């Protein structure tokens, strides 16, 4: 992507139909991408949601990715596509400036003689590739990363600096792992014995399929017995905790600070929002959605959206309500008693009425 | 700060009025600082809160930072200041033993020929300074840190070991970033397409103003389009997650494990307590306070304190009440119906009473 | 553990009574450990919980760790022990393949001349041992780790790669610290002054007793004045935040993503479940248990289990109930009023009844 494309080339790459505005030229070379509101005259934008439609009329962008439906209302050159958000995502790859590295092993890296590093791979400064580890073609191992004994990094996968992969972990092709993430540290397993904890050494590993992206400062623990398994195309954000023997189904996405306890099995195509938690040994159905900060304490058998927590408010109101939370069971019982007593009183009235009638 | 000050010098440095106790000498050299309860005879203490006033009479400290108001009750030498807590904070700088490093580039560091490292800066062992990066005067780049392509570290700023700064990130002057924090990793952006996720490459960067302190294992993601922005004098604790395109206003403080989702705008002088969360695309008014572990799900328009969550209790009571939470809407409806029914029954009674009267 | 034991040797090592199944041989060499369901013919399994008893009859394991009580129902060779889970934990040590390192200092490590590294210790590639630091016998300092000025690592303790120990921190013997954990970073202390924050330099350190295990990406901050203290045999999982001056009692376990705010004192033998939080300056009694994601906002004086939060449900139901949470105080007042009004109405009825009687 050294040379940036013209509008016409961009349209071709994105499979977009180019509808030049009067006076516009297909050989214009846009400088990059931006939102409808912030785009300069030489930037391309996109209209992916009805919420942003109001910004279309005034955009200064030189071209906009739009649907056929909205193309007519586009005041500038339109790049007509079926799915503008997806086309925008594809376009970001063109303008991405994440540094690339030429093949080779930095002189300050430590590569064990028994490790297999493909000649097209890059091993950065102070990185360590331990015994019997394998780094496949075009893989990039950033500065300060460690690839543990016997672990494997698939083709075109990239570890950003200071990632640690323990021994016996398998990372597929086309994966990204961001900085300071740790894969394959010991799961948290201890047997209580006479008031102390005896360590359960974690004998399993971690298996990560192809096309997985993992954010920064995330932990994926190795299995106790058998592996922790991350499915194909899974996307994991920053500071996510995946405990030992968790399984995450293909194409599931987990936002930042979410956490999954040991041996939980999460289905395919799930979306776990930021800060959500899933306790151990539960099963989550495919296509489940868990909302931000919710704690899932039981298995989810049906696709759907799941939540827990309380709404926020000013602290004074909150405190008044929160105190009542501690009285809820008592309130519920009082309500039931009152219902019964009232019903009984109506019964009395009913009883009384005849009696009254008898008078 | 090689030579420690005498009491008199300390008073001068802190702008304190020295009121020597009988027999005390201004040329005494205190060994350090401590609390009123724990101070030894050669330590200086402080009285910053009425809660600790009861410890003043029995303190063994050689001197105490106090207000004029309380100076008379101080049994030892008083260092009279307007704000003892602030004076204590200033004093901690005098006794701090955090190691300092002489200017120079460690032989094991990797500095790209195109990088600009000021001659007064320090680059630690195995640190990496990538192409076109700049490290300003008296900056300290700890062991194993990476400063990515074109990124800049301002004057006197310090990265503790193993911090990773991605490409295109700007850190101001007089900042501290603690170990294993990651700045500029990709924001979490993917466009769904046919059950898969297409990556939205994150084209923006991170801008951090002067006098910002950032704790350990914290993540500040780069912007998707445009930058993530951290204002002047912001203080961020450990394991804080700042998503792409977040803006944090000047002098806001965020405690450990708090998290802010994408494009949220947090005002100035806010205090976000530990574990609090703020969802994406909201705006938080200046001087807002969010209490520990609260989740802010909407914009906050007015300064104030905001909370969510439930009080804790013994698990048995909690379970009884928590079950009722799942019945709350039903309870509310039953309460309303009961109110209506009761009012109606009173109406009957009222109707009856006259009838009774008529009898 | 280079050579794996025979069944007879395994029994001896674990203090188990070997009851060979018909045709089984004590000189069989099992390949490893597995669950009852997943074990192959050459793996040893264990029955530690009644929940798994149903898997015993069909297991393919060559031997099973069982209690005397259940040994008779074991279809294969029984290894009879008093506590099968504990025996399993001991057995994991035998089959653990975590790489070990021979004594020596890697050529790419930086060891300050004033540091004391025992001749039996291992210092990995690009690791840094600063001035006056001490690394005791058989300690293992992984690649990219930093041991700060004057800090000490006890005998047989192991830092996995990229751990950072700041200056003035003391780690006991037989400890493990997993990758990218940070010990001794500054506690979060700032004094407000005229709308800005003045740093309170953190003058204390961190003291970690023997036999402590700490997970990956965890932070244990140094004390402000005096040390943060972690007791003997404490087990801490990944991404746990321990703030300045916290004290954690012996043999307490803290699961992933739990957090403790400044100066909290946690007792001995406590279990803090995943994601639980404990606010600052509270005291938690020995043997307390805090359930997952609960927030402890006050001291706990008695051993027991403690919780907060709400149950999860489908988002639609949850939303209906959560809205009512914001009306709880009002509901409680309405309930009380209704109770009073109803009682009063009954009073009227009671009053009326005699009157009725009088009629």
TrEMBL record, chains A, B, C:
Keyword Lipid biosynthesis part of the UniProt annotation: yes
Broad enzyme group: transferase
Pfam families reported for this sequence: GMPPB_C (PF25087), Hexapep (PF00132), LpxD (PF04613)
CDD domains the record matches: LbH_LpxD (cd03352)
Record keyword rRNA-binding present: no
Family: Belongs to the transferase hexapeptide repeat family. LpxD subfamily.
PANTHER family: UDP-3-O-ACYLGLUCOSAMINE N-ACYLTRANSFERASE, UDP-3-O-ACYLGLUCOSAMINE N-ACYLTRANSFERASE 1, MITOCHONDRIAL-RELATED
The protein's name in its UniProt record: UDP-3-O-acylglucosamine N-acyltransferase
């Amino acid at each position: 992507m050294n040379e940036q494309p013209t509008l016409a080339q961009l349209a071709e790459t994105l499979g977009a139909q180019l509808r030049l505005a009067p006076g516009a030229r297909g050989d214009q070379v846009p400088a990059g991408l931006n939102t409808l509101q912030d785009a300069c005259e030489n930037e391309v934008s996109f209209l992916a949601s009805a919420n942003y439609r109001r910004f279309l009329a005034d955009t200064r962008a030189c071209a906009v990715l739009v649907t056929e439906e909205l193309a007519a209302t586009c005041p500038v050159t339109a790049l007509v596509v079926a799915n503008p958000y997806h086309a925008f995502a594809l376009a970001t790859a063109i303008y991405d400036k994440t540094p690339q590295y030429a093949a080779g092993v930095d002189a300050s890296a430590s590569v064990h003689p028994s490790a297999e590093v493909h000649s097209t791979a890059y091993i950065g400064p102070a990185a360590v590739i331990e015994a019997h580890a394998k780094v496949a073609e075009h893989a990039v191992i950033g500065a300060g990363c460690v690839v543990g004994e016997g672990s494997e990094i698939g083709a075109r996968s990239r570890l950003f600096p200071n990632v640690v992969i323990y021994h016996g972990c398998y990372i597929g092709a086309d994966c990204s792992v961001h900085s300071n993430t740790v894969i394959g540290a010991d799961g948290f397993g201890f047997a209580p014995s006479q008031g102390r904890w005896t360590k359960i050494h974690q004998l399993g590993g971690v298996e990560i399929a192809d096309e997985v992206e993992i954010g920064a400062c995330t932990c994926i623990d190795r299995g106790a017995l058998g592996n922790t398994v991350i499915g194909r195309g899974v996307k994991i954000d920053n500071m996510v905790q995946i405990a030992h023997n968790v399984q995450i189904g293909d194409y599931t996405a987990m936002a930042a600070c979410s956490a999954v306890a040991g041996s939980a099995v999460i289905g395919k195509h799930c979306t776990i929002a930021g800060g959500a938690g899933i306790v151990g040994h539960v099963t989550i159905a495919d296509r489940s959605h868990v909302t931000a900060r919710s704690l899932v304490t039981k298995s989810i058998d049906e696709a759907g959206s799941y939540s827990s927590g309380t709404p926020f408010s000013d602290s004074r109101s909150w405190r008044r309500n929160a105190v009542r939370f501690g009285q809820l069971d008592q309130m519920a019982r009082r309500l039931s008693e009152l219902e019964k007593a009232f019903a009984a009183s109506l019964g009395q009235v009913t009883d009384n009425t005849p009696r009254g009638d008898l008078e």
